């Protein structure tokens, strides 16, 4: 009999081939998403032109404009969109409505927009379903063919039933986890349609610009693609493992082994299952049979006791492929990895929550050295504790102002900072008090007498972004203080205290200096 690793490698090669099929399907789905996005954004632009020409509409006036008749060209476009929809009740319903004699002459802007959204959502759902079905049939047939060839080669007494697609067809007809792939696709489609409806109609009624609405729609379509990708990856994993199990059972094999991937992407749930052996009659998807969760990469193989000489594939801390004894389980392998691997594993497992956090931070903080992209954000979070504490403090402060605009610095948008505060005070070696502060700015942030304008601009930009505290008053006006996070040009952010003097019509800077703050602690 061939070594265990031979059969495992054959199974892994089929998984990799399946992933390539998934990638092909996702290319088709991405194109469909991009087309739907472009069509819907174009419809919003066309139908919303009248809203852009009017200003300060009340909700009632906006609704009146939505109720107004749409151009006849919109009706013609809608007919073409309906013709592109896949067969189904949604197409029948829209065709019946559009065929009504008076519909072409009384269709409102709102009705046209809602019909566009529904048509594009259904077209996208249909293309997703078609791409996934094609992939599932190809993967299922390849898995059955591969299992039968290997079992025959291994000398198993096989009793194969039907052609290579028999098991696939049967499995696709069997619901799991509350539904099948088709019901999940159409469930996602209806959720997308409703979400887009709410966004677009709410945008029209609240006076959002076409550009802002286009960004909202793009974000929702991006989420639609993510859901489609998750569905494709998960459904293929479930089908491939179910087909493998059915072919093993047909060959008279009663036990299978759970095989997880030995790398940083594997979660603790899957890692704990690695190497476990189950009877085929005990297989339950989500419990004793993959997938345990969306994007699961685990597979099942026929159980054969490993020998000392045999090995299995794994990845080290640098993500290089290595060989380890075949009897090594995920938990044993994970325990042998260093601290670097533990951090990388945490980064991988927190991808979803970190991405959501990054999106929130980037929206409020804008672009800086640590929010330039998601990779930079994760590097700061897991490898630069001081920078991450500054990011959190920066978000906390700016969010305080966003939550309570009354905390804004008076006249912040026209605040000034005299050049003398920098050239004659902070960066003047003859001014002992100011020079000490200037040296700190140079050392920490890279600002000095040669680029003091950049520091001034950063402070004035921060004036509108951070809450202010009234510290007292004098004969010239009220004294305010702001605490900002400046990122400078060295990639070492600093907590900067800025003093201001404000009267009725103006606000100008009185002082600025770096004040250290301990990690996790707000500066006093």
Protein architecture, described:
With 524 residues, the chain is an alpha+beta fold. Among the domains are: 248 residues, no CATH class; 109 residues, no CATH class. It is 58% helix and 11% strand. It has 19 helices and 9 strands. It has a 4-stranded antiparallel beta sheet. Helix 1 packs antiparallel against helix 7 and helix 4 packs parallel to helix 7. It is flat. The relative contact order is 0.07. The model has no long low-confidence stretch (mean pLDDT 85).
Topology:
Elements: H1 4-47, H2 49-53, H3 59-67, H4 72-84, H5 89-98, H6 103-106, H7 109-153, H8 166-172, H9 181-206, H10 210-250, E1 255-259, H11 268-273, E2 277-279, E3 299-302, E4 311-315, E5 321-325, H12 330-335, H13 339-349, H14 351-365, H15 374-383, H16 385-403, H17 420-426, H18 432-445, H19 452-463, E6 468-474, E7 477-486, E8 494-502, E9 507-514
Antiparallel strand pairs: 1-2, 1-3, 4-5, 6-7, 7-8, 8-9
Helix pairs in contact: 1-7, 1-10, 4-5, 4-7, 7-8, 7-9, 7-10, 8-10, 9-10, 15-16, 17-18
């Amino acid at each position: 009999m061939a070594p265990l690793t031979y059969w495992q490698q054959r199974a892994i090669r089929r998984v990799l081939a399946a992933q390539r099929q998934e990638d092909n399907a996702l290319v088709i789905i991405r194109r469909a998403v991009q087309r739907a996005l472009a069509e819907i954004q174009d419809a919003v632009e066309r139908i919303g032109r009248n809203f852009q020409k009017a200003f300060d509409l009340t909700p009632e006036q906006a609704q009146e404009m939505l109720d107004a008749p749409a151009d006849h060209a919109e009706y013609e476009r809608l007919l073409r969109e309906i013709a592109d929809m896949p067969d189904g009740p949604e197409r029948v319903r829209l065709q019946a409505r559009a065929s009504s004699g008076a519909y072409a002459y009384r269709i409102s802007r709102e009705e046209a927009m809602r019909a566009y959204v529904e048509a594009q959502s259904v077209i996208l759902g249909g293309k997703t379903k078609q791409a996934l079905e094609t992939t599932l049939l190809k993967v299922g047939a390849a898995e059955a063919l591969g299992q039968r060839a290997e079992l025959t080669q291994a000398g198993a007494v096989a009793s194969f039933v039907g052609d290579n697609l028999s098991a696939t067809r049967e499995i696709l007809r069997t619901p799991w986890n509350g539904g099948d792939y088709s019901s999940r696709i159409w469930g996602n489609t209806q959720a997308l349609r409703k979400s887009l409806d709410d966004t677009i109609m709410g945008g029209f009624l609240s006076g959002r610009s076409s550009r802002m609405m286009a960004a909202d729609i793009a974000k929702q379509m991006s989420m639609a693609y993510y859901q489609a990708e998750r569905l494709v990856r998960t459904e293929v994993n479930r089908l491939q493992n179910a087909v493998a199990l059915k072919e093993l059972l047909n060959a008279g094999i009663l036990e299978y082994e759970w095989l997880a991937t030995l790398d940083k992407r594997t979660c603790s749930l899957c890692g704990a299952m690695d190497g476990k052996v189950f009877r085929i009659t005990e297989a339950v998807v989500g419990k004793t049979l993959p997938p345990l969760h969306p994007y699961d990469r685990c597979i099942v193989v026929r159980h054969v006791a490993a020998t000392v000489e045999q090995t299995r594939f794994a990845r080290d801390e640098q993500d290089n492929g290595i060989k380890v004894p075949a009897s090594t389980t995920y938990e044993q392998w994970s325990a042998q990895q260093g601290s670097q691997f533990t951090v990388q594993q945490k980064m991988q497992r927190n991808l979803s929550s970190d991405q959501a956090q990054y999106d929130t931070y980037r929206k409020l903080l804008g672009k800086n050295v640590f929010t330039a992209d998601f990779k930079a954000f994760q590097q700061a979070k897991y490898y630069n504790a001081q920078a991450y504490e500054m990011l959190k403090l920066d978000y906390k402060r700016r969010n305080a102002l966003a939550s309570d605009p009354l905390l804004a610095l008076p006249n912040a948008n026209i605040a000034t900072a005299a050049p003398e505060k920098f050239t004659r005070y902070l960066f003047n070696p003859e001014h002992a008090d100011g020079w000490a502060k200037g040296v700190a700015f140079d050392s920490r942030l890279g600002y000095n007498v040669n680029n003091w304008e950049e520091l001034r601009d950063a402070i004035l930009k921060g004036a509108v972004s951070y809450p202010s505290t009234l510290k007292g008053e004098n004969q010239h006006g009220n004294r305010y203080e702001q605490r900002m996070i400046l990122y400078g040009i060295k990639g070492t952010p600093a907590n900067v205290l800025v003093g201001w003097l404000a009267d009725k019509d103006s606000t100008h800077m009185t002082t600025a200096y770096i004040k250290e703050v301990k990690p996790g602690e707000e500066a006093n």
